[in-house]
């Protein structure tokens, strides 16, 4: 076990934790055994790092043996965040106050997880992706690079809504391709595919796949027009109109 450069009152660092240089802990931080924290990381008051998952007696969640939590260099962890064992947080991540990242997740570099947002188990979040306040990213989701999820976006992964045994084989979160943007309060149904640079309007309910470079809105969401060209991150990859 190594010691942080500074720590607040009543911190608990369990045996086997590996802490790099220039790591600063707030008050009452708990670091569970074998957690790895790389250099230049700051952890806010009351955060819990490397927690093992627990579950209700009726839960079907499979936990198993988990690798240690790894936090990349230069990351900032806010107050009262909970990061579970088995996950990897890339360098220069920002995990805001009260956020939660469950087990077996992989977050890329420069990822932002907003205040009170949750990233459920077995989810991948790409580089430079941002989740704003109170986003719910369901288990078994894939979110690629440069994606933006506005406040209160909700994703789902169970097409049977917790009824019938068939749901165990059908559980799948959305796949959100790079550069896509989801506006505030939108809901994505299980397994939908959001294409590259697509835009989902505020309050939309997405029930089927969204084509790349298209804007959808409504309940259910429908294509209304292409993504504005001046907003594109990857304009050279946008489809071109065929000549009449």
Give me a quick take on this structure.
The protein has 244 residues and is mostly beta strands. The chain has a domain of 77 residues: UDP N-Acetylglucosamine Acyltransferase, domain 1 (3 Solenoid), CATH 2.160.10.
Write structural notes for this entry.
With 244 residues, the chain is mostly beta strands. The protein has one helix spanning 167-170, and strands spanning 6-7, 12-13, 18-19, 24-25, 30-31, 36-37, 42-43, 48-51, 70-71, 76-77, 82-84, 88-89, 94-95, 100-101, 106-107, 112-113, 118-119, 124-125, 130-131, 136-137, 142-143, 148-149, 154-155, 175-176, 181-182, 187-188, 193-194, 199-200, 205-206, 214-217, 222-226. It has a domain at 1-53 and 66-89: UDP N-Acetylglucosamine Acyltransferase, domain 1 (3 Solenoid), CATH 2.160.10.10. The strands form 4 sheets. It has a 12-stranded mixed sheet, with no helix packed on it. It has a 9-stranded parallel sheet with strand order 3-6-9-12-15-18-21-24-27, with no helix packed on it. It is globular.
